[in-house]
């Protein structure tokens, strides 16, 4: 059944109130600050500064994090839940650095919307654009927050034009900034005819709202200094004439993004953005799967793993699989079927992430993200159901673009190294190939920095110094097809053959010419640059 007002299915209230989203941005645009303010308003933390402070504490505990700190990047993603108004928000954190985009892409399969944060002085930056393209592939609804308006920023029309042009999406102003830089006093709420005034003296104070009866209301002049008022009136009039009107359906379809202007650090515009996510960010959506889609309102529980994080606490060597609930009402202790192995799993210690604390999740609804501690059974792309053999699709695996050989500093520790590498392969942090001839492993990643993170994590989590060295290979292709044909191919190309962490056969080479030759000589074999996560 469709709700006539929103054109969305009518869902049970507990599901309908969920908003599961990620923030996409270029490093430094203000994602951490905005997250912190979300949590502050959501009551998940008491004081600004805690996300960062907890981040620091976490960093000192586990160690690749030293590198993270040095470089000022965030490589671990997690999920946070908080309530605001009648909504339950599930914010899935995405790592910011482009070398971790694999992880980010997969994270985006677990959300129903994205908040795009841009810096008002810098506009659309490279990483924002890249992430936006991924959202577009899935037609994810996007809400935009233009941050740092308390600083000198670009002209509002210019910012909007840039987004429209660079990202090919309609932009509709939900708010209009009044003044720039030092003169910035707040926004005119275009949707509700309200003035939102920023309090510069108190960074944690929520903006004062003043109801206005349209742009002719004399009350405007009482609050907006004369030198800003004329410009505001002129700009809002122009914006209403020239820019598209908010069309909630177009937002849901990913063709239009509403934009709010604010200053996260001054807590300004954040509440309006949250209300916007509540009003326009979609409720949990249908999940693509095979042999059939999963609808959130289905009574039976289904969920899928989009991320695995190992050694969150090095003392316990645990692994947490992050599961997006796709349907139903999950209760702690439920037995679910792990579809890949067809085995039942009792989910007795699921965790919810409130700010950066973990709590036992007594229940979860479609849209929620829970963490399931496990010993390696759960892998990225796995589906959990109440028995039905159904598999969530669309979780990407990326072609490794850089290959290097890895060796343990101490050759006696080869087994340890293998264990560490397998774990990272299962986490989806790298592709690991064991050549059929010779010793050592070949590791494939998407970005150079991933090698450094791996080396650092292997050393810290397994006490094993390792070296990455140039490999004689530059490309990897998964081989599939008829078994006899594969055997023939493998025997004739032993020096190019390796197995990945699942034991699947991979052809390694440095020449496109070799790949073309295989395709020609073995027409029944299929060579693919990626393997769907399953
Ligand atoms: P990120 O997660 O997207 O990388 O950005 P983050 O929130 O860490 O913000 C990057 C920098 O921008 C931080 O300054 C932060 O304080 C600042 N910032 C965030 N929002 C605003 C805003 O609305 N206005 C202004 N003027 N600055 C803002 P930093 O100096 O790098 O860190 P810190 O010393 O403040 O912690």
TrEMBL record:
Sites where the protein binds GTP: 25-32, 93-97, 147-150
Superkingdom classification of source: Bacteria
A single GO molecular function term of this UniProt record: translation release factor activity, codon specific
Domain Tr-type G: residue ranges: 16-285
Record GO biological process: regulation of translational termination
Keywords of the record: Cytoplasm, GTP-binding, Nucleotide-binding, Protein biosynthesis
GO cellular component: cytosol
InterPro entries per record: EF-G-like_DII, EFG_III/V, G_TR_CS, P-loop_NTPase, PrfC, RF3_C, RF3_dom_3_sf, RF3_GTP-bd
Subcellular location: Cytoplasm
Protein name in the entry: Peptide chain release factor 3
Gene: prfC
């Amino acid at each position: 059944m469709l709700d006539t007002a929103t054109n969305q299915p009518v869902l049970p209230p507990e599901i309908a109130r969920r908003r599961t989203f990620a923030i996409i941005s270029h490093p430094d645009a203000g994602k951490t600050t905005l997250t912190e303010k979300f949590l502050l308003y959501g009551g998940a933390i008491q004081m600004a500064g805690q996300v960062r402070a907890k981040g620091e504490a976490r960093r000192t505990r586990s160690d690749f994090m030293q590198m993270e700190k040095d470089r000022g990047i965030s490589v671990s993603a997690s999920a946070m839940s908080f309530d605001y108004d009648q909504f339950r928000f599930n914010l899935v954190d995405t790592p910011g650095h482009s070398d971790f985009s694999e992880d980010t892409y997969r994270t985006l399969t677990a959300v129903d919307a994205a908040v795009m944060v841009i810096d008002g002085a810098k506009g659309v930056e490279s990483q924002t654009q890249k992430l936006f393209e991924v959202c577009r592939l899935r037609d994810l609804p996007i809400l935009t927050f233009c941050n740092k308006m308390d600083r000198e920023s670009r002209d509002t029309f210019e910012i909007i034009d840039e987004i429209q042009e660079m990202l090919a999406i309609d932009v509709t102003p939900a708010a209009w900034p009044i003044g720039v830089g030092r003169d910035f006093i707040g926004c005119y709420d275009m949707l509700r005819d309200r003035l939102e005034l920023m309090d510069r003296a108190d960074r944690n104070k929520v903006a004062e709202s003043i109801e206005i009866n349209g742009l002719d209301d004399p009350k405007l002049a009482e609050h907006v200094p004369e030198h800003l008022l004329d410009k505001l009136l002129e700009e809002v009039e122009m914006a209403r004439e020239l820019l598209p009107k908010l069309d909630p359906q177009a937002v849901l379809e990913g063709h239009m993004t509403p934009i709010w202007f604010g200053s996260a650090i001054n807590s300004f515009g954040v509440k309006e953005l949250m209300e916007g996510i509540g009003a326009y960010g979609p409720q949990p959506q249908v999940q693509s799967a095979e042999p059939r889609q999963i609808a959130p309102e289905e009574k039976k529980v289904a969920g899928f793993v989009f991320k695995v994080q190992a050694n969150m606490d090095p003392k316990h060597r645990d692994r947490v699989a992050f599961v997006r609930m796709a349907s139903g009402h999950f209760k702690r202790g439920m037995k679910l079927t792990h579809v890949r192995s067809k085995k039942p799993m009792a989910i007795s210690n699921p965790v919810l992430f409130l700010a950066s604390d973990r709590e036992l999740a007594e229940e979860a609804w479609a849209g929620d993200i829970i963490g399931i501690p496990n010993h390696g059974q759960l892998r990225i792309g796995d589906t959990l159901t109440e028995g039905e053999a159904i598999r969530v699709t669309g979780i990407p695996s990326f072609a490794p673009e850089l290959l290097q050989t890895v060796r343990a500093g101490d050759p006696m520790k080869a087994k340890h190294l293998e264990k560490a590498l397998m774990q990272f392969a299962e986490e989806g942090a790298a592709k690991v190939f064991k050549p059929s001839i010779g010793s050592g492993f070949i590791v494939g990643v998407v970005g150079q920095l991933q090698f450094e993170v791996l080396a650092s994590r292997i050393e810290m989590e397994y006490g094993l110094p390792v070296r990455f060295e140039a490999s004689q290979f530059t490309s990897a292709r998964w081989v599939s097809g008829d078994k006899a044909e594969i055997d023939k191919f493998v025997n004739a190309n032993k020096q190019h053959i390796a197995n990945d962490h699942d034991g699947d056969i991979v052809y390694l080479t440095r020449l496109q010419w070799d790949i073309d030759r295989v395709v020609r000589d073995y027409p029944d074999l299929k060579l693919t640059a990626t393997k769907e996560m399953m």
